[in-house]
Amino acid sequence: MPQLIEHIDAIARQKQRDVLFLKFSDPDNPDWEIKKPNSSWNWESSVGRQSVIEWLNNNQIRWQSCCDVADTNSMRSYAGQIYIDVPFEETNPVYQQLLNYLENPDGSTRRPGVWFFALTLHAAMNNVHHDEPDFWDRWAESF
Prior knowledge:
Helix content is 29%, strand content 13%. It is globular, with a radius of gyration of 16 Å. It has 5 helices and 4 strands, in the order H-E-H-E-E-H-E-H-H. It is α+β, with helices and mostly antiparallel strands. It has helices at residues 8-15, 47-58, 93-102, 121-124, 135-141; strands at 19-24, 63-65, 82-84, 114-119. It has one domain (8-141).
């Protein structure tokens, strides 16, 4: 069944706060270089993604699929990104639990191929015009 997947910046504007999200890559290709023709990695079968989702579900942390920040100059396919519905607040105990699961104390990742990001509401507001009625329909007509 088709699914409408929101851009992460739209989610930030809806929530009116900074937001957290994850991207996933082949652990054997951590720099996101162009995939080699014989590579079998796919976000749908990513062990890193599956284990993160299982952990989020087991810890009753809400999440949803999301797309990258919207860009009117390009279109990208969904690549398994997920928004995590936890406020980006250093003192929030759920944020601390999430941070400890994803990162080492020095800030390096505990999970190869799992990339942890925060998008500020301030940055998301750069695309506030995307929220105008019919913006994307008008954009598609001239794409």
